[in-house]
Amino acid sequence: MTRSPDTSADHTDTDTDSHTDTDTDTVFVLVHGAWHGSWQWAATQRALVGLGAASVAVDLPGHGFGAALPSGYLLPGRPGLLTERSRLAGVTMDDCADAVLRTLRRVRRYGRVVLVAHSAGGGPASLAAERAPELVDRIVYLSAFVPAGRPRFLDYVNAPENATARGAGLHVGDPEALGAIRIDPLSPDPAYVEELRETHYHDTPAGLFDRWRSALSPDLPLAIPSTPVALTASRWGRVPRTFLRCAQDRALAAAVQDLMIAEADRAMPHEPFTVHTLPGSHSPFAARPRELAGALVG
Hints:
single chain, two-stranded antiparallel ribbon, globular
């Protein structure tokens, strides 16, 4: 078995699908957010294993090692970075929900399934739970989009409650023309790199941030934040749900996290959120994976 680098240990282990012999029958299905992939969960998965919990991390279409890069992304001068239409422009919300559903069906044999979504991954995870609530015993939103109150992630990203969030200047090119929200994780501009760090990873150890940014994909298919996700009380609304707030989140402000929780509970009051608060940034899987694993298991 190969494994991926841990931010909190010296070994190098890269597997994103792991389990251990324990008396637990719970498996965590981990869904990443924008520009990330399954590998960003690796340190959290190792911590989950240490707590006796099985887990599997999903690569949404357009992310992970299967993600298509802009043709000039790795070339000198970055030709076409601002104008070349994304090869991921055709990825749909249905495609992403289907990827989650395939994994949920695979792991159902383990027993209790907890679906965990980070950030923009809340849309595909919510749609998967709406379509097959019988496959999910609990859904956990880690500073993630909850469509129960407003159907599009952009509805919350652009809300007044999110006005203090950083990162708008990270987007390059025209999203409508590109078919994607494009960032430049390999930018040679120190000011851009610092804004990326401050937005998503401000509490990740400084010496590790360059490695984390180099693993990001540049394109988020536009459908993920812009497609409406319709939820119903009889399906998604019957799944017990938890929200893990990130208190110092600079990408999705705590005020808008609270807005999503409140609007979801008003829309579907029969199974209200259990809410826990974590310290730190939008990316606890980088800054404090053991604490995140403890919150998930707890």
